Amino acid sequence: MKQKTINAQASLYDNFSVSDTKTSSFDETWKPVWGEEREIRNHYNELAVSLTQKGTEREMIVRFRLFNDGLGFRYEFPQQKNLIYFVIREERTQFAMSGNHTAFWIPGDYDTQEYDYTTSRLSEIRGLNEKARTANVSQSSFSPTGVQTALMMKTNEGLYINLHEAALIDYPCMHLNLDDKNFVFTSWLTPDAKGDKGYMQAPRTTPWRTVIVSDDARDILASRITYNLNEPCKIKDPSWIKPVKYVGVWWEMITGKSSWSYTNELPSVQLGVTDYTKVKPNGTHGANTANVKKYIDFAAANGFDGVLVEGWNIGWEDWFGNSKDYVFDFVTPYPDFDMKEIRDYAKSKGIKMIMHHETSSSVRNYERHMDQAYQYMKDNGYDAVKSGYVGDILPRGENHYSQWLVNHYQYAIEKAAQYKIMVNAHEAVRPTGIARTYPNLIGNESARGTEYQAFGGSKPNHVTLLPFTRLLGGPMDYTPGIFEMDISKLNPENKSHVNSTLANQLALYVTLYSPLQMAADLPENYERFSDAFQFIKDVAVDWDISKYLEAEPGQYITVARKAKGSNNWFVGNVCGENGFKSSINFSFLDPGKTYIATIYADAKDAHYKTNPQAYTIRKVLVKNKSKLVQQSAPGGATPLA
Question: Residue 134's pLDDT is what?
Answer without folding.
Answer: 66
